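Ligand-bound model needed. iron/sulfur cluster.
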Amino acid sequence: MQEGCDKFCTFCVVPYTRGAELSRPVKSVLGEIESLAEAGVREVTLIGQNVNAYHGKGPDACAWSLARLLERVGRVPGIERLRYTTSHPRDMDDDLIAAHRDLPKLMPQLHLPVQSGSDRILAAMNRRHTRADYLRVIERLRHACPALALTSDFIVGFPGETEEDFAATLSLVSEIGFSGAFSFKYSPRPGTPGAEMPEQIDEVVKSERLRRLQRAIDAGQAAFNSSCLGRTFDVLFERPGRHAGQLVGRSPYLQPVQATAPQSLIGDIAAVTITEIGSNSLFGALTDDASPAAAPRPVEVALATGA
Ligand code: SF4
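Prediction:
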């Protein structure tokens, strides 16, 4: 639905390889989603390299924001669940934050990359936001949707990252309490400003920091999963589980959920009460009133022109 990026983070090749931000027109996006819904799809994820910069031309000839598009997609008959990814903190505008309060079909889970908790490194990365800016956005999102769970991306060992900078990243992880995150060692990409920066960090140091960060992220994820024990979620069942009679689906937070359920529930949403927390999955039991909705399947819809 959206492709390219105008942000020019100094570690990233996207602005060079994919070019400037382009957004598919609303009519094209809606046409695809209406067809998908008619085919039985009930969950869509609107995708783009910087999806919340979406500005596709609407039927009124105006540029529509992602918030406006989400609201419209939510009115497509049959669509029950909405997600979008990946977003930039600077493009979380008022309307998009309000969408997390106002659109019940927008799932309470958001992937919002921050990359570092250090202002010095955020500036070197040209992220165009500070740690405080990010925290403010999170606070507003949580105010709009108290059930929201957040995931993020982190890069460790960006050129010039000191132990103090890295400690700021660790403290941000514990301050926010992410439900999960992707973390990577910085890897210089030819043609990007970061690759030319002095003070490249030793691989041994990067590996050691990555291990510490991943321990912190894993602890946050385990805490979030534990908090799900005893809760009842709508689970979208996707496929048979490892054991006979078991199905695997996704919670609103995208966690894999395994439950004993009839095969006929594949493609359906049913209420599941979480009874056990595993290392990679949640386990649950269908609630008594688990009545299937009609045939949902998750699908990604690209927001870029021509995508
Ligand atoms: S906002 Fe994302 S896609 Fe754009 S330059 Fe930064 S990291 Fe790359």
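The first helix runs from residue 14 to 17.
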